[in-house]
Design brief:
Shape: globular
Largest sheet: 8 strands, mixed
Strand content: 5-15%
Radius of gyration: 23 Å
Number of strands: 14
Strand order of the largest sheet: 6-7-11-10-9-8-12-13
Number of helices: 21
């Protein structure tokens, strides 16, 4: 076993003594040592329930003949820090989480690991660590909450709540976040990445659709615990499971489901840790060649993730995609069987929720990549949440140099119907941390402007954002991107059908502006955010921290 180099032999008595002093017996020390890396916190809904999942995982490891070695990593909540300086930290925490999982497992030479997480940056951070370490590993989510008792509306209620500082009209009646702990029951980033873990073959099937309060969640966790001990004995590692085709399958399912725009940050980062390269061109290819067959709240849909699970869930979608020729079912999974074998026979039980391929919501996927002079390296929009009248837009630019400046401008009534709001210097480096703009997108919606106002930023959006909102503009403003030269009153146009985005200003005028442009000084010069700004890759490459950019040359393109 891998842990033998830490615990076995006459020179390892100190190691065994320190473990025994913590309470483990000699018999327990001799067994496979399995890391249980939880992200529990009692502070917010997404992770407040994960102690029970941890307990079930530990039970499974014990039943399988292993010894659980428990530790915790951090969990941050994007929703809590919306429209505050704290929003600079969630994306940064993804690397902190990956690094902490790696540090605990590698320091102690653990034989395998199970990671438990639920929300936006925790799931991809753990998946990055799993790929990086390449030891037997399983990801299991904590599970989603149930939807609110009265269900979800079309999104107006939540938008009004988020925009109360601008509209001054919202009064809280019932908690809109559900009746019990768990990640959000809508198609946000949390559920999107849990789905990706299932398709990759590293996550437990059911991660994204089984509520945390169901007995099935406990049984899943116990099964994960037993299975990880078997994987250690089989020496079954992520590199034995995950392949180029696994990531291509992820892109296909991403587009069928209309997942969060944040998948364009997380999938390339996870792939890079596995030695593969995913580009925005890969997302664009997948979108052009994959219909969207599922649309879930908040993307202009009455259906939530619980409804989707009851309609057949991921098993049904994956099996339908295999039968339709969109997904390769021969890829491997943690179960020791192929993906096709694991979902064989699963069928959609409600065609109103999981559409057949001959009756898709749209002929192309739920995300689109746009290119043009404003974003020569690309930008991203969630087409599954765009109203028909916003598939193309031309408007007057209203420019703000931060999210907070934009919020204040909206409070002053500066944004009018037909405008194109531009928020810049919010990218990975300038932010720093690439804040998401959920508050701004909901303000636009609450003010009744979502049918006429677009938003463009080098920052990012929540998986819950809908409308003509375009993020991840690259290059970002502080790196010389054209978004840094836009002035209020300019004309900007985009076309989702044509995949274009353009600033309609002459080259001569832009040259004059560039000659006068001065990059603003860093907002943060010390601490974690400064470290991230110094090491962050562009959004087109996942916005992860990278100590040696030359390592990118070693990545194997997934469609190469």
């Amino acid at each position: 076993m891998r842990s033998d180099k830490m615990k076995s032999g006459p020179d390892r008595f100190l190691s065994r003594s320190l473990i025994a002093a913590g309470g483990l017996s000699e018999e327990q020390i001799d067994k496979p040592l399995i890391g249980v890396l939880n992200s529990y916190t009692n502070f917010f809904t997404g992770h407040a329930h994960q102690k029970s999942v941890e307990r079930a995982v530990m039970d499974g490891i014990l039943m399988g003949g292993g010894t659980p070695c428990v530790a915790n990593t951090i969990a941050l909540c994007d929703g809590i820090c919306e429209n505050t300086p704290g929003m600079r930290y969630p994306l940064v925490s993804r690397d902190v989480i990956a690094n902490s999982v790696e540090a605990f497992c590698e320091c102690h030479s653990l034989d395998g690991v199970i990671c438990i997480g639920s929300c936006d940056k925790i799931v991809p951070g753990m998946l990055m660590a799993i790929m990086r370490m390449n030891i037997p590993a399983i990801f299991i989510s904590g599970g989603m909450s149930l939807p609110p008792d009265e269900g979800y509306d079309t999104g107006e209620n939540f938008a009004n709540m988020m925009a109360a500082g601008v509209t001054g009209t919202y009064a809280v009646k019932k908690n809109p976040c559900g009746p019990n702990p768990g990640c959000n029951c809508g198609m946000g980033t949390a559920v999107s990445m849990q789905m990706m873990s299932e398709v990759l073959g590293i996550g437990m099937l059911g991660n994204s659709t089984v509520p945390n309060c169901y007995n099935e969640r406990t049984w899943m966790a116990q099964a994960a615990g037993k299975r990880i001990v078997e994987m250690v004995h089989e020496d079954l590692k992520p590199s034995d499971i995950v392949s180029k085709q696994s990531f291509i399958n992820c892109l296909r399912i991403d587009m069928m489901m209309g997942c969060s725009t944040n998948t364009t940050l997380h999938l390339p980062s996870i792939a890079a840790e596995a030695g593969y390269k995913i580009t925005l061109d890969d997302f664009a290819w997948a979108s052009r060649n994959t219909p969207q067959i599922v649309k879930l709240y908040p993307s202009i849909s009455p259906h939530n993730v619980l409804d989707f699970g009851r309609a057949g869930g991921m098993r049904a979608v994956i099996n339908q995609a295999i039968e339709g020729g969109y997904v390769d079912g021969s890829v491997k999974t943690l179960y020791g069987h192929t993906l096709g074998e694991m979902v064989a026979g699963a069928k959609a039980l409600n065609a109103d929720i999981i559409h057949p391929f001959d009756q898709p919501y749209t002929e192309e996927g739920g995300l689109a990549i746009l290119y043009g002079n404003l974003a020569p390296e690309g930008c991203v929009i969630k087409t599954g949440g765009v109203l028909p009248e916003m598939l193309e837009h031309t408007g007057r630019a209203m420019v703000y140099d931060s999210e907070h400046e934009c919020y204040e401008g909206m409070m002053r009534g500066e944004v009018q119907a037909g405008d194109c709001v531009v928020i810049r210097y919010e990218g990975p480096v300038a932010g720093p941390g690439m804040r998401e703009m959920l508050t701004i997108t909901h303000c636009i919606r609450a003010l009744g402007l979502d049918r006429s106002v677009s938003l463009i930023t080098d920052g990012r959006f929540s998986g819950g954002s809908v409308g003509g909102v375009i993020g991840h503009v690259c290059p970002e403003a502080c790196k010389g991107g054209l978004i840094g030269l836009v002035e209020s009153g300019d004309t900007i146009s985009y076309s989702i059908p044509n995949g274009t985005i353009e600033l309609q200003v002459s080259d001569e005028v832009l040259a004059e502006r560039r000659a006068k442009w001065v990059c603003p000084p860093p907002r943060v010069r010390t601490g974690l955010l400064a470290q991230y700004a110094a090491l962050a890759l562009p959004a087109t490459q996942g916005a992860r921290m990278c100590g040696d950019p030359s390592s990118l040359d070693d990545l194997d393109p997934i469609r190469g």
